[in-house]
UniProtKB/TrEMBL annotation:
Residues 8-77 form the Release factor glutamine methyltransferase N-terminal domain. Keywords: Methyltransferase, S-adenosyl-L-methionine, Transferase. Substrate binds at residues 192-195. It catalyses: L-glutaminyl-[peptide chain release factor] + S-adenosyl-L-methionine = N(5)-methyl-L-glutaminyl-[peptide chain release factor] + S-adenosyl-L-homocysteine + H(+). Its EC number is 2.1.1.297. This is Release factor glutamine methyltransferase. GO terms for molecular function: peptide chain release factor N(5)-glutamine methyltransferase activity. It comes from Sinorhizobium chiapasense. HAMAP family: RF_methyltr_PrmC.
Length: 288
């Protein structure tokens, strides 16, 4: 007997619930709608329809992976961020909704720069999927961006994402360890670097610990290694009235502000994430 969508949905939800997944119903809906290429609304409306055996088998295989704690969007291979769709790969962090706060925060600064000079050059250090830089390029049509990463896999993924979202003409990539191979000055420097303390990485939930790349999470003993590396060379790569926008861990505002202050860069703006934690810091030159 062939399955209906409703029965497959209920079976999937029960399977995930039994595996201890708290968001079982939601995850089952997202996985099935993603695999079938249906919106969530269409999935609910078409619940009585028959599902053929090959599709049901694909859904069950995906549900098995989720039951083993693989994240929904890793299984689907892509995720939405700031209204764009991003392909994920092994060396890219899955874009988080909290990181949209960094994009929100940078857009007005970029509009100001474009209003005064007609253009805006961005560098996104450790670009991963390219999410931050590409979301900014989609918002600010006068901007051009450079995404750097230590991983070729990540850079290939970022280029693919630029292509998919129609932004390839304004986006370039460079293999570089933070500012290592970067040349020239930028109006906007952005980064969501690894900021979790090494010993805490082990305690993260399995979805993060086993599926997000360690290099995108582990910020060293105190979680600040990447900020130290960035702060040291930021001034040399920043235009006179440029801004630096960084995502930080919830308890790192003071420490990161001090690292940049030591290089003549002052805190100019900041933002909290969806949970009310300090999440974004924006720095400028002290004299500006
Ligand atoms: N926000 C991520 C997490 O909680 C960490 C990302 C990062 O280190 N930049 O898993």
């Amino acid at each position: 007997m062939s399955e209906t969508l409703d029965r497959l949905l209920a079976e999937s939800r029960d399977r995930l619930k039994a595996a201890g997944i708290e968001t079982a119903a939601l995850d089952a809906r997202h996985l099935i709608s993603g695999l079938l290429g249906l919106s969530l609304a269409a999935l609910m409306a078409q619940g009585g329809e028959a599902v053929d055996d090959t599709v049901a088998a694909r859904v069950r295989a995906a549900i098995d992976r989720r039951a083993a704690r693989e994240p929904v969007y890793r299984i689907l291979g892509e995720r939405e961020f700031y209204g764009l769709t991003f392909k994920l790969s092994k060396d890219t962090l899955e874009p988080r909704p909290d990181t949209e706060t960094l994009v929100d925060c940078m857009v007005p600064h970029m509009r100001r720069i474009v209003a005064s000079k007609g253009a805006c050059r961005i560098v996104d250090l450790g670009t991963g999927t390219g999410a931050i830089c590409l979301a900014l390029l989609a918002q600010i049509l006068e901007a051009r961006g450079l995404g750097t990463d230590i991983s070729e896999d990540a850079l290939a993924t970022a280029r693919d994402n630029a292509e998919r979202n129609g932004l390839a003409g304004r986006f370039q990539t460079l293999r570089s360890n933070w500012f290592g191979k970067v040349e020239g000055r930028f109006d906007v420097i952005v980064s969501n670097p690894p900021y979790i303390r090494s010993r805490v990485v082990d305690e993260l939930e399995p979805e993060v610990k086993y599926h997000d790349p360690a290099a995108a999470l582990d910020g060293g003993d105190d979680g600040l290694n990447a900020y130290r590396a960035i702060a040291l060379h930021a001034d040399r790569h920043l235009e006179a009235d440029g801004v630096i926008g960084l995502e930080i861990g919830f308890d790192q505002k003071q420490a990161v502000t001090a690292l940049f202050a030591a290089q003549g860069l002052r805190l100019h703006d900041s933002a909290k994430d969806l949970g009310g934690n300090d999440r974004v810091l924006v720095f400028k030159r002290t004299e500006n």
